[in-house]
Amino acid sequence: MPADATASKPPLDDLMMAMDVVDTLRHDERIAVKELGDDLRDEQMVERLRQIYKSQGIEVPDRMLREGVQNLRQNRFVYSPPAVGFQRTLALIYVTRARWSKWLGILLLLAVAAVLAWRFLVVLPRERAAEALRIELTETLPADFAALPARIAGIATVPEATARAEELAATGLAALAANNAEAARKARADLMALEAQLLQTFDVRIVSRPGTPTGVTRIPQANRSAQNYYLIVEAIGPDGTALPREIRSEEDGKTERVDIWGQRVPKATFDAVRADKQRDGIVQDAVLGSKARGKLDIDWQKPVDAGAITTW
């Protein structure tokens, strides 16, 4: 380092002394506030400083005291915060990072959790549902509309069943072409119900047991002078159990799924069954009709009328 540069810098002791003088002036209200406020001469301030240091046993050269007074007037050794600006803002952000970084981290975690929740709880289920619907409309339902009529044709023994299956399949395919999933599903459900109906086999047997009437009569509301006759019957399957059936009551027009109902019959049929039961308390000729595999309707072995009831 050049010698002249070293010589131009004040010794460290002098610098510390100058700072102490300024600090003494700043903390001594009588000098730093009152006397400066009254615009007293610098020599009076120097004299005051000399007395203060002398009382402390410290000898300070007059040069130092005068420099201290001058430095106080020039606000030297006083910290002045930097002016507001971009660099100061960056510095404040950096020195306060311990406070705001924690909250920023929490906000980032919440944002990531929200994105993941939206993805897994909303987007993915929606995408899976859309893909499932696409497969159903383009693969599953078309295959069913081809397979079910073929199976029904192999079971049916009456042309009406085959024609009905073809009609339902055409309805389903038209719904697929219109991208109507609900209508297509209903057509498939109707085809499956038709197949199940064709596969059913049972006997319609007249009930003959204690606690349940074998037959009942009704006076219709529309014709109070007439009388309707009903035999209480069940559809008994090959295993001996009663099969539930969809029966529409002619009294209230409601369709119910029941395993016992009243089948309307002519008076002659009703009287013949009553005479059968009166002989020994049991209806010996109890089969009113039969439903064979491949057929849609019941083949009645005794005369019956159209109509049924579900309560009596």
Can you tell me about this structure?
With 312 residues, the protein is α+β, with helices and mostly antiparallel strands. The chain has 3 domains: 64 residues; 101 residues, no CATH class; 108 residues, no CATH class. 57% of the residues lie in helices and 13% in strands. Strands 1, 2, 3, 6, 7, 8 and 9 form a 7-stranded antiparallel beta sheet that branches. The N terminus is likely disordered.
What brief labels describe this structure?
single chain, 312 residues, alpha+beta, seven-stranded antiparallel beta sheet, two-stranded antiparallel ribbon, 9 strands, rod-shaped
Number of strand elements: 9
> What is the number of helical segments per DSSP (H or I, 4+ residues)?
10
Which geometry do the CA atoms define? rod-shaped
Cα distance spanning the termini: 124 Å
Total of domains: 3
* Main sheet makeup: 7 strands, antiparallel
Beta-strand content: 5-15%
Low-confidence stretches: 1-10, 32-39
Secondary structure class reads: alpha+beta
Over all CA atoms, what is the radius of gyration? 54 Å
Fraction of residues in helix: 55-70%
Question: How would you state the average pLDDT, rounded?
Answer: 85
The helix/strand order is HHHHHHHHHEEEEEEHEEE
Compose a concise summary of this entry:
The protein is of the alpha+beta class and 312 residues long.
Outline the fold blueprint.
Elements: H1 3-8, H2 12-27, H3 29-37, H4 42-55, H5 62-73, H6 86-95, H7 97-155, H8 159-177, H9 181-199, E1 202-206, E2 215-218, E3 228-236, E4 245-248, E5 255-258, E6 261-265, H10 267-280, E7 287-291, E8 299-300, E9 308-309
Antiparallel strand pairs: 1-3, 1-7, 2-3, 3-6, 4-5, 6-9, 7-8
Helix pairs in contact: 2-5, 4-5, 7-8, 7-9, 8-9
